[in-house]
Amino acid sequence: MASETTHDPLNRRSFLGAAAAAISAGAFAAPFAMAQSKTVISKGEQNHSASNPGPINKSIANQNPSSELPPEEDHGDVSPFWYSFDLSHRRVQDGGWTRQVTEKDLPISKDLAGVNMRLTAGSYRELHWHTANEWAFMLYGSARVTVLNPDGTIFIGDVAKGDLWYFPAGFPHSIQGLGPDGCEFLLVFDEGSFSEYQTFLLSDWLIHTPKEIIRKNMHLTDAQVAKLPDDEEYIFPGHIPGSLEDDKRAVGGSAVESKVSYTFRMEAMQPTETNSGGDARIVDASVFPASKNIASALVTLKPGAVRELHWHPQASEWQYYIQGSGRMTVFASAGKARTMTFNANDVGFIPAVAGHYIENTGTEDLIFLELFKSSYYADFSLNQWIRRLPPNMIQDHLHLDSTETKSIPAEKLVTIAK
To answer: In terms of residue numbers, what domain contains 67?
Structure first.
C-alpha cells in the first residue's frame, strides 16, 4: 500500500503558497480554462491558437496540465475542485505542526474540511473537544488516542499507519505521538468551515476561569493552582508513555473501559472490492459503528487503471491523495465538465451526484481516500446502470446493438484495469 509520506520543504510545490488564493478562486485561467467547443479546441491546437507568449509560471502550469490545455471534452465554467496541503500555512510548535484545508481554501467544499498534523515522539495534541465530528487516517508512525464518553467510561487505544479513528462532536479527546518517531495523520471534519485553531482547549479554558473557581471545583490548593498552564499548549512535547495495558490499568481498568471502540484497522482489512485494476476498502457505520457521520473508502489504482465512471447519490466527495499521480474529470450537468490533475498531498472535491472518474496517469499505484458526510457509502456505476436496462432502450439511447452492449461490464467494478 502507501509508502511513508514525507514533506520536503523544497518539494515540487513549496513555492506555490503565493498562488493559493488565485488558484482557489479560479483566477489562474489558461487559454482554454473556460467554455470551448470540440471544434474550436481542435482547430486551436492546429493553428497555434493555444500558444501563450506572455508571462507564465511554468512550474504551476506544469503541475496542472489539464487546466493549461484541457481535454477537448472539457466545457463550461466549473469551479476548481483541487487544492493542496502544500499550499497551506504550517503552524509549527515545539512537538509538531499542523495545517488545514477548509472552505476558505476550497470554496466549493462546504460539507468537509481537512487537517494534516505531525506529532513527534511523546508530543501531544492537547486535550480538547470541538463542534464537528472528527475522522482520522494515520499516514505515518503510531499514536495513542483517548476519548471520554458521557457516561464516564474512557477509550484508550493505539493506532498505526493505515488505521482510523472517529471522535464524535463534543467528546473530549487527546492524541499523543509514540516512539520511535511519533506520527503524521489526516483529520477530516464534517463542517466545511471548521478551523483546527478554534477548538476548545483544556489549557485555554482554565486560563480564562477564575483561580478561586478552579480551586473550589478541583479541590486544589492555591499552590497547586499556580502550577497550571498560563498559556494555551495546543501541540507540546511530553513523555513517551508506557504500555497501553499500563495506561488502561492506571485509569481504572475494565470498570471504566468504553464499550465503544473508536479505532479501526482500515488498511489491514480485506478489500471490499478487488480486481486487476486495483482495490477499494470501504468503511462506514456498517463495519465501524462509531463512525456515524463520515463514510470512507481507501482506493488503490494500478498504473493506467481508472476508478470507473460513477456518482454518489447521498453526499459530496472529499478526497485526499496519498501516493502517485492522476487526473479526474467532473461532469457537472448542463454541458459542464472540467479535468484537473492530482498528486500526493492534494485534496479533491466532487459535488453530490456529479459524475466523475479518476485515472492513474503515473507509473506507480495511485492511492487516495474518498470521504463523505454520511453514515453509509453508496455509489452508482454507469456500466451497471446501462446493463440493467432493456437492450432496445440502450440501442435507442447509445446506438449500440445487444451484442455490442454485452461488452460493457454488467457488475460494479469500482476499479477497471488499463
So the answer is: 27-78
